[in-house]
Every structure is written in structure tokens, then in C-alpha cells.
Amino acid sequence: MKEVSLSSLSPGERGKIARVATQASVRQRLLEMGLVKGTPVEFVRSAPMGDPIEVSVKGYRLSLRRVEAQSVFVVKETK
Amino acid sequence: MSFETATTATSYIALIGNPNSGKTTLFNALTGLRQRVGNYPGVTVEKKEGRLTLPDGSEAILLDLPGTYSLNASSPDERIATDVLLGKVDHTQAPELVICVVDASNIERNLYLVSQIIDRRIPVIIALNMVDVAEHAGIEIDAKKLARSLSVPVVPLIASRSIGVDQLKRAIKEAKAITAKTRSWRMPPIVEEETEELIGYLQRYHKLNEANAFHEALSLLSAPESLDDHRDRYAPEVIAHVRKDHERLNFMGIDRQSVFVESRYEWIKNVCTEAVKQTHNGKTSVSDRIDRIATHKIWGFVVFLALMAIMFQSVFTWAEAPMSWIEDLTMLIGDQIKIVMPAGDLRDLIIDGGLAGVSAVVVFLPQILLLFMFIGLLEDTGYMARAAFIMDRLMSKVGLHGKSFIPMLSSFACAIPGIMATRTIESPKDRLVTMLVSPLISCSARLPVYTLLIAAFIPTTYVLGFLSLAGLTLLSMYLLGLVMALTMAWFFKKTLLKGPAPLFIMELPPYKTPSVRSISLQMWERSKLFLRNAGTIILGVSILLWFLGTYPKSEGTPAQQLEHSFIGRAGQAIGPLIKPLGFDWKIGIAVCASFAAREVFVSTMGTIYNIQESDEELAGSSLQEKMRNDKDPVTGAPVWSALTAICVMVYYVLAMQCISTIAVMRRETNGWKWPLFQIGYMTALAYGATFIVYRVGLALGLGA
Hints:
heterodimer, A: alpha+beta, SH3 type barrels, 2 helices, 16% helix, B: alpha/beta, Rossmann fold, two-stranded antiparallel sheet, 59% helix, elongated
């Protein structure tokens, strides 16, 4: 399975979290917000200026900057 | 059921929960107006306590902890929540019971915090809030099953409509006898083994109880290999053991950081499979439909700008009428006093000192009330998170968070509500930076200074045929303030308050109908805090400045009296200091006299130039006339030029000439350190910038 970064998805695209690869404190927060391995995630939209982005995870909406989203890797859902 | 007689000691209960879980709404529903706001010692985090009466008539104190997603505290706000639970905060006892507010419509992530609290062996009740919202989204939660899986009481409720609040109070009474259960989530066997062993070490070498040892063990096992943050706090034997654990777990291919989070979420998933049913997937939710417009590439800005324009307009102009009523009322009361009291020092003290001081405080209330009404509306509806979402890109360029935008915008009206509005910013460093730079943004009190000087000294010519030079000058003053505010924010983030760029990992909660009660409570609370804490300082300084501007008394015209007063002498004394800026001693007096409030510059100028017209318009134009004709008695050169006017304006853009802002800074930062720093850096900035403008202006031959 090919892993892509969460920030590379387009609106409406879904996938499952594969891993989060960034410095420990940021990683802790991202994990605790529910971005743990195997969790389904959907890219909802980007902010009007392109950054940050909004994703749907564990039944709620999470916004994060692209720089953080780049460190979250997902396996894209095949249609 | 507990059969204790009504206890004499009041019990201490803490309210904890994720941001947006409705924690504050529940706090208000439980305590009503019986609240008290203070600060935790040494930090700028607000401490909110309230009293509630339990069904048996006994009283309990409820502590509203800052919203937090986890007990692995990263920000000071969250650390307070964790430290309070463990009784590690001075003057705050450890709670006997914790009420954890859980957003039913977002249960999985909310249960994460619950699982951490259970691990701490603190008695806990789940307040399952917003069950109506959850139901609407097709989420059905079986509270009994949930309570069984978690082994803690669960009370479903709708805090915004006070439904279920009485049941919660009953549960509080009963739950005090319940001791917390051991953890029910499991980690992979090898991790369990290592944790178990490490707990043994921690208990042996550090005499920790089991719950604390468990927490420390997890923190040690998931820490980076360097153990930089932990090395000094543990016995060498413990550290040596942890190093071996790290090696072993790494060798087994276990991700030491994520394994604990994953294991908790795995357990939560199982709990939810039992107790939560997704009945229908709900069509596109209302929130989503709103967001399609509210965060749209074009419409998003239109909505945002429209909302900001309304808010800005209201704080800027709607507050004007009530503000002038307050001023009129002050005059009226002053006139009444003049009728009943004979002229004299005491009467002057009462009218020009005390009454004027009270008026100087109360006059801010309309703006504070209006701004907090809007902020309350934006927050309560859920739009605030979208505003931050939209503006984050821009604010991140200077190292700030999207949430710094609204306080800075509000500061165009007045820095006081602006600074008070920074409390929506979670990161204390970002909040402090926003507070430090907000007063650089031109507030409404500077406008009279600008208009007087522009009307008097800026020629009425047009640039490019249609742009009036006067308008452009005014615009440049506003821009100068804004640019300096952003520059200084960037500078502070790079130097003094250096820290990681603020994380923008934020929930976008569903939109909801705002609660009138929550908003009015917030407006009331903010006004009360302002009057009590900042108001007393403003009043005191106003009286002091009146004294300094009146004494020692002398004969002659008001201008001569002012010249001989303490302020007048101070203004003349700083003459050599301000000469390099092109300011003469009259400007010096005006600068000193308007230290408390910038708009005083205009009336001081009026006094200095002996303006006696009662008609404001006439007074204004004759003041301009006199200022233009003022000549230096020695050289005969005009005292004022367009350059001088611009220099004075630049000084007023950048200098901290507002005692009310200082008082609010003191209240919000809980000390004198930051307000004093702010006065220092702003004065230095104002002096430096004015000096440069003056010198460059002279070099360009603009001084004539």
C-alpha cells in the first residue's frame, strides 16, 4: 500500500491513518486528537487561503496546518 | 447510597472536559451567579470557582478547570488542569470528585480524557452532555451500558437547557462514596510487562502510589531516548532501567509513543461498540452546509468581513451614544454639585478628580459590553473557530495564531476590550504577545489628536487629483500602528517570547444556537472584573493626575496655572529630552498631561492656548488658528509645522499614553512586570520612530 501525506488529499478523499512522523510533542497531540493508526480520515476542505485544512476523524472536525498534515501519512481508500 | 449526615466540611469538586464540550455552560447551570474568578498563583490562567447546593442541602465548591484534551499537559492551561487534579497547585486543594463533561456527539475523542482520569484513581462522574445534538446526528448512547463498561456513573444531560442537572447533583451526592476503579484498557503484553516492572521500580525508589507510578511509567516509556526532560528527576537505577526498556521495546518494533494512545483508543472503540449506536448516518449536517459558505474561498471572506464590519462598527460607533450619555450625566452631576457646594478645593477634587475619574472608568463599559456580546456570540455559535481557521494563514506569517486576529481588530476601537478578548488564545505566549502589541493599533481615543493636527497643519491638497492629503495622512497613521503591531509581534515571537510556532490543531465544533444566559453571564463577569480591578487603578491615577495638573496653585490665566502645576513643570523639565523630536515645552506639557488618556492632548492644548469658546466647533478652529500662529519668542520661527504635527501624531500612534490599558494589562497578566515592560518598549519605540521621522523630514526640507 502506498502512503501519501494527509495534506496531499483533495476534498472528499478518504484514507486510513498509517503513521504520524514529526517531533514528539506535536506527534503526541496529533495522536491524542485521534489520528492513530488505522483510523479512517476524510479530507473535508482547505481554508480559503489554502491553509490550514479541515479533516473529519472519529466523528468530529479537526483543523490543522499543512505543515503538520504533511507529517501525517495515510493509505488512500481505493474507489 | 451514602447515609452520612450532611457533612460540615464543604466538598471540593472539579469540572473538567474537552474544549467545546459545554463545560462552561454546565458550570453556569450548576452554580448560576454564585461564581468567583481569580488567578492561579504565578500564571495567567484564570481560576473560576462557584458554589452549588446539593439535594440534601449541603454546599459544595465547584472548580471549573481549563478545557483540555488530555492530561499529558502540553500548554500551561492544560498543565493547570492536571496539576489541580493531583493537588500540586498552591492554595488549591485536590478535588474529592471530578465531573468530566463528555460531548455525546463526539464521544470517542472525549472518552480519551476520561480514561486518563480513571487511571488516576480519582472518583469521577461522567456528565454526558449534548445528548440532543448527538441524537440529531444519529448517535444513540446507552448511558447504563456506558456506565457499566467504564465502571463510573454516567448522567446524560443537556446543559444548555438545564435538563439532567438535578440528576447530576444527586449523582454527586452518591458518588462521593465511590472509589475509582482500576484501569480496564490493556496494552500489548510486552508493554504491560515492562510497565509493571517499571512501576515496581518507581514505587521502590520514589515511594509513589500506584496511580502516580503508573502515570510516570507511561511518561518515561514513551519519552524520547535522550530522556532529557526526565533524567534529573529520577534515581539513576530507574533511568538505567528505563534505558533497557527503551532498547527492548524498540527492538521489538514497538512505537513507544503511539502504543499507549493507540491502546486507549482501541479500548474506547470497544466501549463504543457496546454502548453507542449510529442509527442513521444523517444527511449532510447543517454545520456542513453552513461551512460550505462560511469557509468558501470567496463567500467565506464575504461572511467574515461582513461579521467583522458589524462587530467593529458596533464597538466603534454604537458605543458612542451610551458613552456620550455617560459624559453628559457626568456633566449634569458636576453641575448639580456646583449648585449645592461652594467653590473651593474640595469641590474641585470631587468634580474634576473623583467624578471625572469615575466617568473615565464607566465610559469604557459600553465598548466592553458590546465587544463581549459579539465575542460571546461568535464563540457560542461556533463561528470563532472558523474565524481562526480563515485568518490563521495571515496571522501565522508573524508567528501568531488565527485567534489573535479578533483581539487585534477590536483594538482599533479600544485596546481595553481588545486585551480582554485575548483570553480566547490558549497559548500563554501568543496571548501575551497579542496583548503587548494590541495598544499599538490606533484606537478611537487617538482620533481627536489626529483630526486636530491634520486639520491644523496638513494642507488641503489632493494627491493624484482625488486622494485628499488629509485622508492619506490619517490612513498612514492607522497603517503605521497596524504595521508596527505586526512587526513587534513577529519580533517578540523571535526573541523575548521565543517558542515553537503555535500549533493550530483545533476542533471545528458544530454550529449551535447561542445561549443568552452564557453570553450575558460573560458580559457581566468581564464588566465586573474590569470595574473592580482595572477601575480602581484608573480612578486612582485620574485623581492623582488631576492633583498634579492643579497644584501647586497659582494666579493668572488657566494656561499660566497649568504651566506652574506639577505637570506643567514636568513638561518643561523634559524639554531637552523631547527637543530632538521637534517638540517644544507646550507639547511636553500636553504629552505629560495626556499620559492617562490620549484625547486629553486636545483639551490640554486648548488650555495652553487659552481657548475659552464654549462652542466646540468654534473652539476647535480657533485652537488650530492659534497653534498655526504660535511663534518661538526667541527666534520668531513658527513653533508648529506640518512636520511637527506629523511627529506628534507618530508619537501618539506608538506611545503607551493610556492608564486604562496599563490597568487592564496588570489585571490580565496578574502583575506589574508586563505592563511596565509595555510602557518601556512603546515609549522607546515612539521616541525612536519620531526622532527618525523628524530627522528625515528635516533633511528633506519639510521643517519649514
